[in-house]
Design brief:
With 149 residues, this protein is of the alpha+beta class. The chain contains three helices and six strands.
Length: 149
Amino acid sequence: MNPESTVKKGYHCAWQIHYHIVFPVKYRKSLLDEEVVRIIQETATGIEERYEIEIESMGMDQNHIHLLCRAHPKISPGRIVQVFKSITAREIFTRKPSVKKHLWGGEFWTDGYYVATVGERADWKTVERYVQKQGLSKQDLKQLPLFSF
């Protein structure tokens, strides 16, 4: 069963909302090495358990991250970004303090982000493939378009 075909249900509502969220490392520094990626992945599991956020797919290049996720409608996309950035940054600084020497001001992620809803039919697989292929070399993957015009 495709994740996009599952309607989630709460006490007073049902929803089927998927977000594609992208945000870069502060100053676009290439700090997402294997160790930092592992820290982010492990921390994401804790975020899912603690908050009503389901991370369906995650992809990273050296300087930015793509999340394909869904959450209860009461949780705004901005709140998802805030939770994810703050908790992962704290864990990265705690478990790998050497990244601090590449940054100043005590922030790991940049302030901005990109968010889009992902349709339940046509573009789900395209976006999911795009997110999963982040970090592969140019030889491994041709850029997938986010939208077809």
